Structure formats: structure tokens, C-alpha cells
Amino acid sequence: MTHMTIHYPNGGAYQHHAASTPHAHTTMYGGRGMTLEDELNGSNRYYLQTGRAVVHKKPTPIQIVKVDYPQRSKAVIREGYFKTPSTTDYNGIYHGYYLDFEAKETKNKASFPLKNFHQHQVDHMRACLQQDGICFVVMRFVRLERLFVYPATPLIAAWDAQAHGGRKSITLATIERDGFELTPKIQPRIPYLDGVDWLISQKVGAPRG
Amino acid sequence: MTHMTIHYPNGGAYQHHAASTPHAHTTMYGGRGMTLEDELNGSNRYYLQTGRAVVHKKPTPIQIVKVDYPQRSKAVIREGYFKTPSTTDYNGIYHGYYLDFEAKETKNKASFPLKNFHQHQVDHMRACLQQDGICFVVMRFVRLERLFVYPATPLIAAWDAQAHGGRKSITLATIERDGFELTPKIQPRIPYLDGVDWLISQKVGAPRG
């Protein structure tokens, strides 16, 4: 098992991707196995190196309980626990715009299940939208090999509707209609800034700070 | 010892503040000991709850090597190591502006030592400035009980000058001249958005995205 699920005190589940090991949701490019997280980290490095944007994945929050300090060697954490994050996984800046996003994938072919998201992620995206941030999800349909930038606004609407008895997933047709489909490249593998440019083009005239 | 220094593989030093325990640099308010990090986290919570801004401290990056999964209990990290961060500690969004900052304190009374900063922090602030972010340092002179928002631009200039034989600290007089002094409040304890408003007022007319 290369894909571990940590259950938070609050009952939420957190998918931890062992960074270098391929796992269940791995997609193959040229025979190499990479996770969505690996591909986004590589894309972020590319964007940073080329001066396009400064975006980083946030570290997994860990509650450190016990640390050893061996002689002449670096500190070792001997007891730690995964904490519930209070934000999405990725944020940064692109040409003056604050970017904030989550990356999710599904094996489904017809719709994207909302159970892939957690309340804290939705709450955080809502708060960032209120501050005029560019908030979205990078969604991958693994088996369809299709990638989308899906805006936070319709995602939050679907999340809220679900809480009132609405459907528990977003149909592919809806994602095709309200999202922006990404065309994977060699560099960057996930050119999500193409979707960000599309989001920004829809904001024209919106207040900026 | 309530204040641990981890030495990175690259030789840099990282100050880890045990979140809930008061330590060497603790300042006292009403008899309660709080670290600069504690106070900033509280200020960020206040700004979030009041809808002023969405700013979070980034978790400390940990390389997880070994995790135990006890029956009927949550995952325990049994071996982990501190990694060198690639960014500053704090970022977020305020009224459409990307904020990025580091928090540092000194016991000195006449100047702020540049050794409080690390190359990766300076590199990151430089990259964020190039993307038109609002980048700064919250500086505390512990013994003077004075707090400043000091812009990244003069900080980076001092850092670069040091590399070419310039002085190893920034004088208080320079910080008073080029920075914005914060007046601590009850809520938020560190009203750094006052300094951000000052920084933004100096950017008027600058390109926005």
C-alpha cells in the first residue's frame, strides 16, 4: 500500500502521498509513474525557475511531540501526529494575483465525487474568494486522462447544495461547461496557469484590492 | 531548553518554536508568556474571523520516514526529519493583495542582525516581489518592546550589500526610517495590516497583475 489515509481527530480523512513512490492513482507518462502532486510540484518548479509564478505546496501540518538530538547528527522526530490542515494545499502569487488551489483526482468517468473535498478546504476557498483571490481545483479524471481547472465558485455551490440534499458529485458535463480543460505538456506537465489566465479573463473589471 | 535549533543538511539553522511553551524570546503581556509566533497566529485568527485577511503560518516541512498505524488509534510518525523550507513562514491574501512575510526578533537594542535571515527566505521574497507581492518582515526588538513592519526591498538590499562586505545588521535608525512601527493592541496583538496598508499606499500606481 503506497497510499495512506490518516483519520483526523475530527473524523476527516487526509490522503498522504508518499512523495517518491507511485501509487494507486498514478498516471504514466513515458513509462514513468508520477502522482498528481509530483506533477504539480514539478510544474511549480518550472513556473518558479522561469519567473512565471511563485507557487508552493504547503507542508503537511505535523504536531511534533518528541524529538531526539543524537550526537553529531541531525534532530530526529520520534513522535508526531498529522494535524488537520486549515487551508488548501497550494497557494502563491502570479503576476500580482493571489492563487489558491487544491488538487484532486478520481477514477470515476462520469462525475467528480464531492467526498474528495473537506469542509476546511471549502471554508478556506470561500474566505479567499471574499478577499478577491483566484481559487480553483485542479481536477484529474485518471481513467479518462483529462485534467481541468475548476473554479471554486461552482464547486462551493455544489458543496452547499449537497448539504441541502443536492447531488454528491459534479457531472463531467458540468465540469466541461464551467471549467477549463488543461492540455498536459512536457514542460510544465500541468500548465494550470492557462486555466488561471482564463479565470482572470473572466474577472476583468472586478475590484483589485 | 525550550528553543531548539535544527541544523539543516545545507548548514543553515532553523529556529523551531515549541508552539505552546514560552521560551527565551518570550514577551510578557498581562503575565502571560507568548512567542512572536503565538501572537502572529492569534492576530491571523482575528483577521480571519473578522474577514480582514486570510493569512496562515506555513507548517514546518517534515520528511516523514516511518509511520506506525496502531489498531484503533491514529497514525504516529516514528521517524521524521526537519527539512529546509523553500519559502517564508507566512503568506496569504488581503483585499486582493498577496502577502508574504517572515517574523523575526532580536535581543539587540541598536540594530537587527542579518543572521536572523536565511538565503532561501531572501530568494523567496525576491521572487515574490518580482510577481508584485507585498513582502516584508515583522521585526521585534524584544528588549525595546518595539515592533516594525520592514519592507523586503531594503532588507534584500542590506542582504546583498552584506555579501559584498557591507554591514551585518540593519541599524534601528534605518528601520525607523524605512519601516513602519506597529502599536501592539489587545486585538489583534500584532496589527501588521496597518503596516501593509502603509506599504500598499506606497505602491499606488504600480502595475497590478
UniProtKB/TrEMBL annotation, chains A, B:
Keywords tagged on the record: Cytoplasm, DNA damage, DNA recombination, DNA repair, Endonuclease, Hydrolase, Magnesium, Metal-binding, Nuclease
Cofactor comment: Binds 1 Mg(2+) ion per subunit.
Swiss-Prot/TrEMBL cofactor(s): Mg(2+)
An example Gene Ontology biological process: chromosome segregation
Localization: Cytoplasm
Catalysed transformations (reactions): Endonucleolytic cleavage at a junction such as a reciprocal single-stranded crossover between two homologous DNA duplexes (Holliday junction)
Binding site for Mg(2+): 87, 89, 102, 121
Site for Transition state stabilizer, residues: 104
Major subcellular location class: cytoplasm
Chain ranges passing through the membrane: none
Record-listed E.C. numbers: 3.1.21.10
A Pfam family the protein falls into: RecU
Domain of life of the organism encoding this protein: Bacteria
GO CC terms of this entry: cytoplasm
Coiled coil segments of this chain: none
HAMAP family linked: RecU (MF_00130)
Record-linked NCBIfam families: PRK02234.1-5, recU
Family per record: Belongs to the RecU family.
Function text: Endonuclease that resolves Holliday junction intermediates in genetic recombination. Cleaves mobile four-strand junctions by introducing symmetrical nicks in paired strands. Promotes annealing of linear ssDNA with homologous dsDNA. Required for DNA repair, homologous recombination and chromosome segregation.
Name of the protein this chain belongs to: Holliday junction resolvase RecU
Species: Lacticaseibacillus thailandensis DSM 22698 = JCM 13996
